Amino acid sequence: MLDGSAGVRTQLLKLFRALPSEDIQDHVSKALPYLRAAMTHLSRDIRSSSLDFVSYMIKAAGPELISCPGGWHQTLECFTTVLGWRSVDASRWSSTKASFAGDSKSTARIMQVLAEFLQAGLVGDEQSPSNTNPLLAHFPLWEVETLLVPERSNAYAYLNLFGPQIEDETKILDDQQDRQRDFAQNFQGHILAGIDAARKEGGELGRAAGLLVKTLERAQSS
């Protein structure tokens, strides 16, 4: 992800896509620091190719990506840093060496991947509506999953019962409501201000902003 050769990064992405998704899911927490470093890298090419890795990770291991330590909060910080959306006041935005200032195509691509990330963290998988009452569909076995042995290891790691005190940025936000609360407190104002500015620009940025708006609307109704 951080290699200076575009060919190496391309082949690595092909390798990831060839692997079973289960293998990716088991190693998301180890790959995430490199992924975030690539997103904010000084090299524009590495920042650009990192979006392909992020998009693939969301598709292959979305739940694991957003629920691992720092996977939600710190990754959103990377998105807002690269976009330059670190303030609710658009007049105070400043382009950094890790941004795509002036490149509307790359900025629109970041916004599209951000929409995918927010979809995974705030909305999740949308299931088709059913007319069958869920209580009747599972009668007489109601809420059996709460009594079963968890399918994943260390299912209660988010409670941090015996570990050291951890920072808010690296907490395991395994619950959708916790992620929604963190988003509302730390990112919603910045992202909404960025969306408004992008819609005024129109073109590719306007379309990407519309995609973000639809994602946030689905999050509010979920």
Describe this structure as you would to a colleague.
Helix 1 packs parallel to helix 4, helix 5 (73-83) runs antiparallel to helix 6 (104-123) and helix 6 (104-123) packs parallel to helix 10 (203-221). The protein has a single domain (6-88, 98-122, 170-221), classed as Leucine-rich Repeat Variant, CATH 1.25.10.10. The protein is globular, with a radius of gyration of 19 Å. The chain has helices spanning 6-18, 21-26, 28-39, 44-67, 73-83, 104-123, 134-137, 176-186, 188-201, 203-221. It contains 10 helices and no strands. The protein is 60% helix and 0% strand. It is mostly helical.
The coarse silhouette is globular
The residue-averaged pLDDT reads 82
Largest sheet composition = none
Q: Please report the distance between the alpha carbons of the first and last residues.
A: 34 Å
- Here the CATH topology equals Leucine-rich Repeat Variant
Helix content: 55-70%
Q: How many H/I helices?
A: 10
Looking at this structure, what is the CATH superfamily? Leucine-rich Repeat Variant
Kindly estimate the percentage of residues that lie in beta strands according to DSSP: under 5%
Number of domains: 1
What class would the helix/strand composition place it in?
mainly alpha
Low-confidence stretches: none
Task: Work out the oligomeric state of the chains in this entry.
Answer: single chain
State the name of the first-level CATH class.
Answer: Mainly Alpha
Helix and strand string, N-terminal first? HHHHHHHHHH
* Number of DSSP-assigned strands: 0
CATH architecture: Alpha Horseshoe
Radius of gyration: 19 Å
